[in-house]
UniProtKB/TrEMBL annotation:
SUPFAM superfamilies: YefM-like
Name of the protein this chain belongs to: Antitoxin
Protein's organism: Floridaenema fluviatile BLCC-F154
Domain of life assignment: Bacteria
Family stated for the protein in its record: Belongs to the phD/YefM antitoxin family.
InterPro entries reported in the protein's UniProt record: Antitoxin_Phd/YefM (IPR006442), YefM-like_sf (IPR036165)
Chain's role: Antitoxin component of a type II toxin-antitoxin (TA) system.
Length: 78
């Protein structure tokens, strides 16, 4: 991963885009602090795979929202 200043990036945009196209990540620095990352795009298959992993990592607690809504509606009627 390369780190360059915003000023360098504005002068060498084409070279940066070529690096990113080859799969490299580039971090832009302003006043020595990271302000942005330029990363290559991911394919639809990679994105879906990452979303599946994320969804599988979620641990739900309590009852389903539909049951909660039904219960609250019934309590409100009586």
């Amino acid at each position: 991963m390369s780190k360059i200043t915003v000023e360098e990036a504005s002068q060498n945009l084409q070279a940066i885009l070529e690096k990113v196209a080859k799969g490299e990540e580039v971090t832009l620095l302003q006043s020595g602090k990271p302000v942005a990352r330029i990363v290559p795009p991911i394919s639809k298959e990679q994105w879906l795979s990452e979303m599946d992993k994320f969804r599988a990592s979620i641990q739900l607690k309590g009852e389903p929202m539909s049951q909660t809504v039904i219960k609250l509606r019934q309590e409100d009627r009586y």
